[in-house]
C-alpha cells in the first residue's frame, strides 16, 4: 500500500465523519 492509498483512505474517513457531524447538527 502506497502513500496515495493511505491519503485517499484518510480523506474518505474524514469526509464521512464530516457528513455525520453535519447530520447530527441538523437534528
UniProtKB/TrEMBL annotation:
Protein name per its UniProtKB record: Uncharacterized protein
Organism, as annotated: Anguilla anguilla (European freshwater eel)
Lineage of the species this protein comes from: Eukaryota, Metazoa, Chordata, Craniata, Vertebrata
